[in-house]
């Protein structure tokens, strides 16, 4: 029992980081049917911007998060306008993969050129530093903050999708893009806004998750598989699915690291294989 | 006709080039010049530059030229290719550097064939010098630093120790050395965790150590970004607050990382062969040289000292061979060298070709508002305990 209580908070924190970063990708893949391999690159941009803002500009942590999210969205605009618009829904997967992996290499190269090849620190504010006593164990205060961020993100997205006018259009565009367009929904705008939302969420997750997934030059390539796995296990386009997948995989990975650290990510992938075998379309996914 | 003429011209040119290079002796340096471990490769260069600034770039009329190559990460195949390129294309007479053990191991088989001696400036697994008679090492080994660490742990009253090391050559050496020494002294090891090199999240590992009931952690990770994460996880998961002591080799608390660990790091113990704060005239002169060469004091690590002493060995080898490629003579010339390094008195052990040096027990302390590793105890003339027949 003590062991379970010991593992759970760490698993929850890791799961929430995975969720915050991957949910943007999940919505994009569900809605636009774009296998966006550059998602990790936008996460990385967020991390680099936050690190730059904190270390070189000396701004406070919340401001750095804002700069990271808004900055990443602004940087993504030309990509969306010139490249992504051409591949929404229509093109085949190979084109999408080649285009987005190209964008990833491009961003990795530029980031290395501008910020140098070393890993980048994202210093935490005093409030999030140090241990916090949960009663049964101590946990880094930052992990509680990460868990909070994940919950807030999930609730906000659920409200956005289920309770707003935009959400209605979004769901319509996901379920049947052509019909939605015929009914007068300007899908192009829905797509563009969703793209910006996905990039913003990626950048946000990149900053708050930096303690667990440190920002370094090959971030975009190193963690991309993990993010894709979360989406495929959860089912593309489903908030609930992404949440369930993140928590499950976070639990598998953290338990593995706790019980048998020398096995590395073995348990993470075992969990993936089992889940995908039982649920070929992901936990909450629909067959397209 | 035109083709023939250009071939002749090229041949003539290459002949001239060969003639011009006859008295330039090239030394290939393979180090982590970029990537997450870049600081340590840059320290190789800082140390070598300091030696050259002090002694000039000429040895007995020969000009010495250092050629740098980037090893980035533990990638044996790539390092072997770099060494091959240095030997075949650049025609280097000596190889120096190598931050990671697997990379050094991969280069070793080339040395015999190419008659090129190698000076290891970091890689710390004991068995490296056994891989070729042409290898000498001016850095340290895990055994050398860990055996004193285990003795200190016992002195400090630790009874149950948890060991956490990176899962590769030097980590396993550290684990073996600590376990053997600590158990021989009468202590017990209650937990031994091998962490994959790519680990970034140390939370679960800390929790596991805490559950083991250990009263001290002994750890080794290669100096670089993960060490900071490990120390932070130790503090943030409440192990420090709960009175579990942290004992490590100096790799885990390098001086450039201390400001990032912050005041909560005060009191962390480590054993190591060099601290930037080492109080000796040689070290003061060395640090002044580094700063004159443009290095920042906050960036100095042990690899600059190993490189500085490594350059000393290479100069000696060039002198002894008169600039000719004669590895046996070169190695024989440095086999029992003795000198005072910025880290203290050192010598090369003639049988193991590894450096014998003092190992210090240090404690993180605040001095003039700056965190330093303060040397509080000296273990004199430590050999490589991994190769010494005990």
Number of helices of chain B: 12
Q: List unreliable stretches of 5+ residues of chain B.
A: 7-22
Order of strands, widest sheet of chain A = 1-2
From the spread of the alpha carbons, the general shape of chain A counts as globular
The percent range for helix content of chain A is over 70%
Q: What string gives the helices and strands of chain A in order?
A: HHHHEEHHHHHHHH
Question: Care to describe what's here?
Answer:
The complex is a heterodimer of chains A (288) and B (390). Chain A has 288 residues and is mainly α. Helices cover 71% and strands 2% of the residues of chain A. Chain A contains twelve helices and two strands, in the order ααααββαααααααα. Chain A has helices at 2-31, 39-57, 61-82, 93-115, 141-163, 165-175, 177-182, 187-208, 219-222, 224-234, 239-259, 266-278; strands spanning 131-133, 138-140. Chain A has a two-stranded antiparallel sheet with strand order 1-2. In chain A, α1 (2-31) crosses α10 (224-234), α2 packs parallel to α4 (93-115) and α3 runs antiparallel to α8. Chain A is globular. The model of chain A has no long low-confidence stretch (mean pLDDT 89). Chain B has 390 residues and is an alpha/beta fold. Chain B is built from twelve helices and 15 strands. In chain B, strands 7, 8, 9, 10, 11, 12, 13, 14 and 15 form a nine-stranded mixed sheet that branches. The longest helix of chain B has 20 residues, at 2-21. Chain B is globular and about 65 Å long. Chain A binds chain B through residues 2-3, 6-7, 10, 13-14, 116-119, 121, 123, 129-131, 133, 137-143, 211-214, 216-217, 254-255, 257-259, 261-262, 264, and chain B through 34-36, 38-39, 167, 193-196, 198-201, 203-205, 207-208, 210-211, 225, 229, 232-233, 235-239, 241-242, 260, 262, 264.
